[in-house]
Amino acid sequence: MPDNIRSISAMEILDSRGNPTLRVWVTLDDGTIGSASVPSGASTGRFEAHELRDGDKSRYGGKGVLTAARNVSDVISPRLRGLDVSHQAEIDRAMIELDGTPNKSRLGANAIVGVSMAVARTAAIAAGQPLYRWLGGETACRLPVPMMNVINGGSHADNSLDFQEYMIVPHGAPSFAEALRYGVETFQALKAILKARGFRTAVGDEGGFAPDLDSNEAACALIVAAIRATGLRPGTDVAIALDPAASAFEIDGGYDLKRTKAGRKTSSEMTALYAGWLDSYPIVSLEDGLGDDDWAGFQAHTAALGNRVQIVGDDIFVTNTQFITRGIQEHSANAALIKLNQIGTVSETIEAIDMCRTAGWNYVISHRSGETEDPFIADFTVAMGGGQIKTGSLCRSERIAKYNRLLEIERELGLRGVFSSPFFK
Ligand code: PGA
Ligand code: ZN
Q: Which of 29, 130, 303, 407 has a Cα-to-Cα distance from 77 of 20 to 30 A?
C-alpha cells in the first residue's frame, strides 16, 4: 500500500529561543516524506501535556530532547509502521494508548505531537493537497483575523510590564493581505512613537517591543496612538486584544502587579480594572485575565464582561476537552485558545475545537512563545475555519513564516477566500 507508514524518525533542532525541540519525519512505503517541527511554551498552564526534556545538565542545561527523539524512532515508529497515513484518528489513538499516561509523560507530548503533525502533513502530500484542504476539506476558505503581539511583557520579556501580551487586531481590513499591512504599519508607527518618547525598541520573545513603561495601561494608550498615526481608525480598522497571562502573577489567591508596583488585587478587582480599560480602549478580546485555577473568578469575570468582549481561556483550559467541558458548563469564558502541543495530538485538538463550535464559543489557533519556522498552524487555522489566529509580532521569521504562509493560502484561494471579522465593528 503506497500510503502506509514505513518509518518515523526525529531529530533535535532549535526553537526561536535557542532551546532544543523536535523535528519529526514520516516516510511512506512509496518514498513520500513529510515533516513537522514542535513549538514550546514559556508561560505554560499547569495541566498541559508533558514536554519531555532529557534533564542531562551536561547538554543544553538539561533541555535536550534526545530521549523524546529516541521515543519517536524506537517506540512510536515500530507501532505505527504499516498504518495508513490518512487515518489520523487511529494513529493518534495508537500513540495515546502506547504512552498510557493521562498527560503523555512517558513518551513525551513533544514526541507525540510532532509525529501527529508530521502524519497530517505527509498525508496531505500523499493526497496531493495543501495541508489546509487536507484537514479542512473543500469548504476551508476562511482566512483568519490575526492577533499580532506588538508589546511583550510578563514571562516573555525582562521589562517593567506585568501583562504578557498586547496585541493589535486588524479586523476591519478587506482581506488578510491588507490586515497584514495594517498590522505592519501600526507596528512601525509604534516603533517610531516609542523612539520619539525615549523608550527602547528591543523586542521580546514573540517579536513585540518590550519597553519599560510606567504602567500596564500605558501600553494600550501607545497602541491607540500608533493606530491613529497610520491613519487607521482605532476599533473600526484595528482593535486591541490582551493576554495578561495572569497565572504568572497570581499569588495566594490574589494578583500581585509587582513589576509596575501597582500592588495586590483580588480577582474582582482585576475584573474591575479590565472593565475600566474596556471603557477607554477598543479591546475586542481578553485572554487569561485571571489565573488558571481561579474558576470562580473566571465565572464572575465572564458574567461581568462577556457581553462586551471575547473572553478567551488559555492556561485554564489547556486545549483539553475535560476543562473546556467544565468551562462551558460554568460559563467561565466564551472562547478557547487552541495550542496543539498543550494537548498533544491533531485529533484531540480538533475535538477541542468541535466542542467550542457546538457550544457557540469562538476559538483562536495559537503559536507558542518558542516557535520554529514551521507554518503548520497557518494551514491548521484555515482548515478549522474559526477566523482567528494568534501568531506573534510583525518581525522575527518564526512568526512571519505563518503570516507568509497565510498570504500564499489567500492567493491560492483567490475569490473563494473569505476574510471577515469575528468581532463587532
Ligand atoms: P507561551 O505563551 O507559549 O509562552 O505559553 C503564549 C500564551 O500565553 O498565549
Ligand atoms: Zn495565553
A: 130
Domains in the chain: boundaries? 5-128, 142-419
Q: What is the maximum span of the chain, computed from C-alpha positions, in angstroms? A: 64
Q: Is 314 in the pocket of ligand 1 (CB under 6 A)?
A: yes
Q: Is the CB of 243 under 6 A from ligand 1?
A: yes
Cα(303) to centroid of ligand 2, in Å?
Answer: 20
Ligand 1: which atom is nearest the Cα of residue 205? 4
Query: pLDDT (tens digit, 9 = 90+) per residue, 157-176?
Result: 999 999 999 999 999 999 99
Pick the catalytic residue from 165, 185, 206, 410.
Answer: 206
Selected catalytic residue, list 63, 104, 191, 339? 339
Q: pLDDT digits over 347-381, tens only?
A: 999 999 999 999 999 999 999 999 999 999 999 99
pLDDT of 425 above 60: no
Nearest partner of 162 among 240, 260, 254, judged by Cα: 260
| Mean model confidence pLDDT for the chain | 97
Ligand 1 pocket residue status of 45, Cβ below 6 Å: no
pLDDT category at 17 given cuts 50, 70, 90 is very high
- CA distances from residue 170 to 159, 299, 414 in whole angstroms, order as listed: 26, 29, 20
Q: What superfamily in CATH does domain 5-128 come from?
A: Enolase-like, N-terminal domain (3.30.390.10)
Give the Cα separation of 184 and 203 in Å (integer): 15
Ligand 1 and 401: CB distance under 6 A: no
Q: What is the pLDDT of residue 2?
A: 75
- Grouping H, G, I as helix, E, B as strand and the rest as coil, residue 327 is helix
339 classed as catalytic: yes
From the CA of 39, give the closest atom in ligand 1.
Answer: 3
* Cβ of 44 below 6 Å from ligand 1: yes
Distance 246 CA to ligand 2 centre (A): 9
- Per-residue model confidence (pLDDT) at position 424: 65
In 240-392, where does DSSP find H-type helix? 267-280, 295-305, 321-330, 340-343, 346-359, 376-384
Nearest to 203 by CA among 424, 392, 49, 330: 392
* Span 61-107, pLDDT tens digits: 999 999 999 999 999 999 999 999 999 999 999 999 999 999 999 99
pLDDT band at 1 (very low <50, low <70, confident <90, very high): low
Check whether domain 142-419 has CATH 3.20.20.120, yes or no? yes
Per-residue CA distances from 314 to 5, 76, 350 (Å): 34, 29, 16
